[in-house]
Amino acid sequence: MAVSGFEGFEKRLELRFFNDSITNNNPMGLRLIDFESLDQVLNEVQCTVVSAVANHSFDAYVLSESSLFVYPTKIIIKTCGTTQLLKSIRPLIHLARNVNLTLRACRYSRGSFIFPNSQPFPYTSFEDEVVIVEESLPKSFRYRKASVMTPSNSNPSRAWHVFTASADVEPDETLVVVEVCMTELDRVNARSFFRRKGDEGNSDSAGKEMTRLSGIDMINANAFICDFAFDPCGYSMNGVDGDRYSTIHVTPEDGFSYASFECGLSLYDGGHGDIAEVLARAIDVFRPGCASIATTYNGEDYDHEVTKRVERVLAKKLGLKCRSRLMDEFPGSGTVVYQSFTPRRK
């Protein structure tokens, strides 16, 4: 906890592994890693598991500081506050070796912190973070790139930081990953994420009430939601829908309010409108004064029409105007489009 307030902006790490050993004899892959080993890694990162759910495709953990997802050949971990996320890279690679999986690609991303001076080393400098990541990766990774995507009409506080490294350039991921960061949450909407009198000590019922009152349960009605309410305020959830994940984290306090929404979607199973409509429903829950959307299109899947449709739908349904749009390509790791939005009145 910073002196000024809690740091909502997450650090996000995604590790993908070769699936050569995912056979009929070992279809679980990384999911065979025992919980005690994962718990030890999280202890190094400075967070713990507070709730969990699993289905036939992956395991989803709500953490004291955000979320962890474990697929057979992919791990996604994002943590907020002053956590030491990058300390997880080496032990996770080691644990993967124990189940005969070899690292294929790594992606580290984050927004700009609200309280940058409260972060410990190396998170005080993106350059230092990149050095730590690179030192943790195999020397054989040929394709590496670091980028700070900063809108020209903004200041560095709106930047998106991305580092990727890959063993090859062949796409191995079909989902489009959408990461939304929202600040200046609507005060009325933010009240949904404060505990009510009488529900102290019951995070289960309080979390379900926050999910229902806020409208989070309507973002994807097909998803099973594993939610958690913090005391006295704050909220996290993981959504499970087949092989698709979604996650939301909320810091509702006025002055440093923040919410994030992330999900994996496909361009090919319901039309190009899916992403725009899902984003409109998610952002409408919070009505932020500022929202940024980082969309990662893997392989050759980048679609400019999808990007434009997101802008049209958010403008029409929520009155949000796109103030900037940046695009950058990452060898072996796809294309990232970074959009910033504020209400038209601003």
UniProtKB/TrEMBL annotation:
Q: Which Gene3D superfamilies match?
A: S-adenosylmethionine decarboxylase
Pathway in which this enzyme or protein is active: Amine and polyamine biosynthesis; S-adenosylmethioninamine biosynthesis; S-adenosylmethioninamine from S-adenosyl-L-methionine: step 1/1
GO molecular function annotation: adenosylmethionine decarboxylase activity
Its GO CC terms?
Answer: cytosol
Q: Please tell me where substrate binds in this chain.
A: 6, 65, 230, 253
Q: Pfam families from the xrefs?
A: SAM_decarbox
The UniProt record lists the EC number as 4.1.1.50
**Which biological process annotations from GO are given for this protein?**
plant organ development; spermidine biosynthetic process; spermine biosynthetic process
Domain of life according to the entry: Eukaryota
What does the record's cofactor remark say about binding?
Binds 1 pyruvoyl group covalently per subunit.
Give the positions the UniProt entry annotates as the active site. 66 (schiff-base intermediate with substrate), 80 (proton donor), 236 (proton acceptor), 249 (proton acceptor)
Q: Which SUPFAM superfamilies match?
A: S-adenosylmethionine decarboxylase
PTM-bearing positions, type Pyruvic acid (Ser): 66
Q: Which reaction does it catalyse?
A: S-adenosyl-L-methionine + H(+) = S-adenosyl 3-(methylsulfanyl)propylamine + CO2
Site positions for Cleavage (non-hydrolytic), renumbered to this chain? 65-66
Indicate the family of this protein. Answer: Belongs to the eukaryotic AdoMetDC family.
Q: Which PANTHER family match?
A: S-ADENOSYLMETHIONINE DECARBOXYLASE (PTHR11570), S-ADENOSYLMETHIONINE DECARBOXYLASE PROENZYME 4 (PTHR11570:SF38)
Protein name as annotated? S-adenosylmethionine decarboxylase proenzyme
